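Need tokens for this chain, all 273 residues.
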Amino acid sequence: MCWRKILIVVLLSAYVPLFGATGFCDTENNAFGPGEKVYYDAYYNWKFIWLNAGKVTFTVDEAKWRGKPAYFMKSIGVTERGYDRLFRVRDTFEVYVDPLKLTPFEYRQITNEGSYSASHHYIFNEDNRSIRTNISRENSPFQLSFIDWPECTFDILSMIYKARNIDFSKYKKNDKIPITMIIDGEIHNLYIRYLGKEVARNRDGRRFNCLKFSPLLVEGTIFSAGEDMTVWVTDDKNRVPIVVEAKILIGSVKAVFTHADGLRHPLTSEIKR
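Here are the structure tokens for all 273 residues:
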């Protein structure tokens, strides 16, 4: 549905396009730190019509996980009050990760969309390379399973942040970059197509030098199949998505950067007026 594509596909895929298999797991974080907060507005857009449907935030904090140093990352998506009457959304994504390698320890996703609710809970066991998955969905039996944890496989939220640390200079236009994620309790091998560099702007007219991508989406999950999404990410050390656009039957849904607090690096990609 439209709103789910805005909240989950549009923003969470926004960060995914930045890595390849070689050396990815060993890359240490240099793109962000604790205290970072990034904010987006979500819109339905058709020609000159812009409808503000909701807001999404991403935050990073220092934490402990079972006594280990960790980062606690969280993303929240909510519909605007006016939109709540049509379809109310309160979605939350959380993950504890290693602060250097960003390897996930524990992931939780809580979905409340209209009358539908679901939760996903994953525990990542590095000793035996397995993932314990606990999934409950509205009007469906509880699912508990253990699956293999392949190298360089991340949940969708830890992938967002891990991917921000990859060196883009090794890729050329139309390169396909392989990625692996656990989505809905299953491992998926996907790719991102790099589309080169382009200037993007947000709703208040600010312009940014960006890297442009199109991800291959998974059919049969929260995604539609194909490359119907385009992502513009800042061409600086922060790698912050500025605009993400997903096509629908009529018009498109868009996530647009509004502002950020606590960025680790200056936003040098912004083109000054």
